[in-house]
């Protein structure tokens, strides 16, 4: 049984969490986490020195999730899994090790800059920049291969009219199109896997570092001046916002590339395809305006939510005093701040709902003008244009979600920095 399984079982049964076989964590000063992240880019790895199989996997094994095969086979054979069958947490992904890494990066940032100019966002970026760059590169490959498929399909459809045997045309299509789609699927899986690994690592390191400096400077006077609700808000909602910013924010890089690739496909139908592209060009500024409005409202939402949580905490603590002096109406008016939340949700739902209409409007305008000018419209051309327009909807959909996640994450990071300054000032005053 692995040590982490023992600890998890001890938490469930109420047993002590001490384990004699606790693995020794690597020293962040001796082993850099970024170099460990780059080791996964090796195509094949035969090492077995790590406890977790994902640390021993190569690039292809990581992309197709081959390292999960033993666990899947065990689940298939036994029709059930227990906690004994699950691997222990990787030492490179533990909160203690990554907390040391994050603290060392923060101290390096303080050495390079002054305390007022030190940026916690830069520290977060340096913490997971290798994984994020790999995820962005994989996302760009995914976008390119998603456009390669329709082009090859169009060529094979024209080739099928020239060939006598349809079987030969289908075989050629499989030899050309299937590898392109396989690259699309594997690169998309790699992007998702990198996001899934990087987001909880940064979130756990941040959540471990935040209570560490809070508890280290803990005293009865500081606890009275700094409500526990602030720490709860940091460790819950702000931590989730940082997690979503890391997992979704990288998708913003794929939006401009999708627009450029979509416009480059206009030569398949000639000048008429520019009409459909013009529809997307016309709607892109509208989507960017909606994204900025959503980011503005979401930043307001984060502040309003934190203020509302503090008011709710005051109400729960002083409920008897409020009932005694009949202050219900005053507190109700302070809590009733749903307008900003409703506006943010409305703008976001409107943008996501309008995005699928782009394909219909662009296709109808393109095909109508193409036929009106006397050009021939084949099924292969129509299929390619509709597929390309459908791929171009990735930009407005993902751009909105990425901007929303990044805006909320920036507010959360700024709040981490402000709370840390407040705790230090309270600690200095107490001394």
Automatic annotation (TrEMBL):
Look up the record and report any one GO term of the cellular component aspect.
Answer: membrane
Alphabetized SUPFAM superfamilies for the sequence: ABC transporter transmembrane region
Enumerate composition-biased segments (Low complexity). Answer: 15-24
- Its transmembrane ranges are 123-147, 153-176, 246-268, 274-297
Which organism does this record belong to? Oncorhynchus kisutch (Coho salmon)
Q: What is this protein called?
A: ATP binding cassette subfamily C member 5
**UniProt GO molecular function:** ABC-type transporter activity; ATP binding
Which keywords, in A-to-Z order, does the entry hold?
A: ATP-binding, Membrane, Nucleotide-binding, Transmembrane, Transmembrane helix, Transport
Per the record, the domain of life is: Eukaryota
Q: Where is the ABC transmembrane type-1 domain?
A: 230-395
Q: Where is this region: Disordered?
A: 10-35
């Amino acid at each position: 049984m692995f040590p982490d399984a023992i600890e998890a079982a001890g938490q469930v049964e109420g047993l002590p969490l001490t384990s004699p076989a606790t693995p020794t964590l690597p020293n962040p000063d001796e082993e850099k986490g970024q170099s460990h992240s780059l080791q996964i880019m090796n195509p094949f790895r035969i090492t077995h020195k790590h406890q977790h199989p994902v640390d021993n996997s190569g690039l292809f094994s990581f992309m197709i999730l081959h390292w999960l095969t033993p666990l899947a086979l065990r689940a298939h054979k036994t029709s059930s899994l227990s906690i004994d069958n699950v691997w222990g947490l990787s030492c490179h992904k533990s909160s203690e090790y990554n907390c040391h890494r994050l603290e060392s990066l923060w101290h390096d940032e303080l050495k390079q800059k002054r305390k007022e100019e030190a940026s916690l966002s830069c520290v977060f970026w340096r913490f997971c920049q290798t994984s994020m760059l790999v995820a962005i590169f994989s996302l760009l490959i995914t976008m390119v291969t998603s456009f390669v498929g329709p082009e090859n399909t169009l060529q094979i459809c024209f080739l099928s009219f020239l060939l006598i045997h349809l079987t030969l045309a289908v075989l050629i299509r499989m030899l050309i199109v299937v590898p392109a789609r396989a690259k699309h699927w594997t690169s998309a899986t790699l992007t998702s896997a990198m996001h899934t690994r990087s987001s909880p690592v940064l979130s756990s390191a941040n959540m471990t570092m935040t209570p560490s400096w809070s508890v280290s400077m803990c005293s009865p006077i500081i606890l009275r001046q700094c409500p526990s609700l602030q720490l709860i808000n940091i460790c819950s909602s702000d931590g989730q916002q940082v997690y979503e910013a890391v997992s979704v924010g990288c998708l913003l890089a794929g939006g401009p590339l999708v627009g450029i690739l979509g416009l480059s496909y206009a030569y398949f139908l000639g000048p008429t395809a520019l009409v459909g592209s013009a529809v997307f060009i016309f709607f892109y500024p509208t989507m960017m305006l909606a994204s900025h409005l959503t980011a503005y409202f979401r930043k307001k939402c984060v502040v309003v939510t934190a203020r509302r949580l503090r008011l709710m905490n005051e109400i729960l603590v002083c409920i008897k005093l409020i009932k005694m002096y009949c202050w219900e109406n005053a507190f109700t008016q302070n809590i009733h701040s749903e307008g900003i939340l409703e506006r943010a949700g409305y703008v976001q739902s409107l943008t996501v709902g309008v995005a699928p209409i782009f394909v219909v409007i662009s296709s109808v305008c393109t095909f109508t003008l193409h036929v009106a000018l006397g050009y021939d419209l084949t099924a292969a051309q129509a299929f390619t244009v509709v597929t390309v327009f459908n791929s171009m909807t990735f930009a407005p959909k993902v751009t909105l979600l990425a901007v929303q996640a990044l805006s909320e994450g920036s507010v959360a990071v700024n709040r981490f920095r402000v709370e840390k300054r407040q705790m230090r000032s309270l600690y200095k005053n107490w001394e």
